[in-house]
């Protein structure tokens, strides 16, 4: 593969006087998992939303290279073009099921509707695909017609993962996918994410304040503080030999 799948250059975005992004650049290569870590309020979610075209930066560029190798300036795409690209090539997993699932739609519908948005119409095949994905994320396929609110928190996150991956995305944005779950449930979810990411060779941007999750999943880590990347490098290097004082605090769990 020649070149990064996603490249951001010198992103700036302020909310009033607050610099949420203050000159952030990054590259994400095909099949690479990059974790963005930092304490709450450091700008991680804002960065993810800018990279995914959901928020426009005040300056800077985001370039996405699609499956055909065509480069798109994400911040300049029309809403329709962004929606097309996002449906066909991206997946999203959020911390809250409210953001990542349609709570009034069955588990099977949550998975199937993403394929329908890409033109799939064969009801029987959609059900079969949805059942297969429920199995893959370790949910009893007999729960196909249940609403997500009948699921445990861990199951809701696994359903989000099925919904995100069913379309065969090349790039997945995850914002605190294990946040708010019990530790044992988190561990199971992280193992599942790790297995699927490796099997499907996904590029992933993982926002997390969980250092253990970053260590388990990420090839590279970016450390954010007050809208800036204060340290970046291979995951083992950043975690085992942090150079920046803030990373040292983060890794030693003082924060
Ligand atoms: P993180 O995800 O690292 O916790 P965020 O990206 O959500 O941080 O927020 C970064 C900073 O920007 C925070 O101080 C937050 O309060 C502020 N912020 C985020 N979104 C908005 C918004 N829509 N309007 C005003 N301030 C915002
Ligand atoms: Mg956040």
Structure, briefly:
The chain is of the alpha/beta class and 255 residues long. It contains 10 helices and 10 strands. Strands 6-7-8-3-9-10 form a 6-stranded mixed sheet, with helices on both faces. It has a 4-stranded antiparallel sheet with strand order 2-1-4-5, covered by helices on one side.
Biggest sheet: strands, sense, closure? 6 strands, mixed
Low-confidence stretches: none
Order of helices and strands: EEEHEEHEHHHHEHEHEEHH
Sheet with most strands: strand arrangement = 6-7-8-3-9-10
Shape, per Cα inertia axes: globular
Give the overall pLDDT as a whole number. 96
- What's the β-strand tally? 10
C-alpha end-to-end distance: 38 Å
Binned strand content: 15-25%
Structural class by secondary-structure content: alpha/beta
Task: Give the fraction of residues assigned to helices.
Answer: 25-40%
- Report the total helices: 10
- Rg, nearest Å: 18 Å
Bound molecules: adenosine-5'-diphosphate, magnesium ion
Task: Summarize the helices and strands and which ones pair or pack.
Blueprint: E1 6-15, E2 18-28, E3 33-37, H1 44-51, E4 59-65, E5 71-73, H2 79-89, E6 90-93, H3 97-100, H4 107-116, H5 123-136, H6 153-165, E7 171-175, H7 183-200, E8 203-207, H8 211-217, E9 220-225, E10 228-234, H9 235-240, H10 245-251
Helix pairs in contact: 4-5, 4-6, 5-6, 6-7
